[in-house]
Amino acid sequence: MLALRSGLTRALAARMLAPQVCSSFATGPRQYDGTFYEFRTYYLKPSKMNEFLENFKKNVHLRTAHSELVGYWSVEFGGRVNKVFHIWKYDNFAHRTKVRQALAKDKEWQEQFLIPNLALIDKQENEITYLVPWCKLEKPPKEVHVLWWNESADSRAAGRHWSHEDPRVVAAVRESVNFLESQQNMLLIPTSFSPLK
């Protein structure tokens, strides 16, 4: 299970609830090296979700030949369902540009994945993010991995309840809430081909 909160809250929560968090991302100017992560969300036509996922599973090797896939999930709940969320790692913006150019020239990728799936996608969103300075991205000791790791949706709810009673968390939220522009929560289920589970 993966619970994702976008925006500043990811960084704040990572700092406040460090024992629960495996990795956190921020969207602000927190880049200390060139490495960044692209969050991509595809909103799919409801009747085409399975077809899209099967096609990506079959052709994931064509895409990962160009850059590193960190994880790939389907959205269980949190806003609109029938969407997939994936994270790609890039060394810098020049690397991302080279990857995009290579994909545009990759006939096999174009013909086997991109062209057949374009009609299945209603909308796409991309976001550039960086790891916050006090976190690192690594494989977890357990098979289940999340950006906010929880045993279950119930354990997530219990952890949030506990954090709302912790005066340190309450104070940190009060101090930082003015900087929050937006917040979104999603429960994500890893696909069979996702490196992070």
Automatic annotation (TrEMBL):
Gene3D superfamilies (alphabetical): 3.30.70.100
Pfam families: NIPSNAP
NIPSNAP domain mapped to chain residues: 37-136, 143-195
GO terms of biological process kind: mitophagy
Protein origin, superkingdom: Eukaryota
Assigned GO CC terms: mitochondrion
InterPro entries the UniProt entry points to: Dimeric_a/b-barrel, NIPSNAP, NipSnap_domain
Family membership: Belongs to the NipSnap family.
Name by which UniProt lists this protein: Nipsnap homolog 3A
Naturally occurring in which organism (per UniProt): Prolemur simus
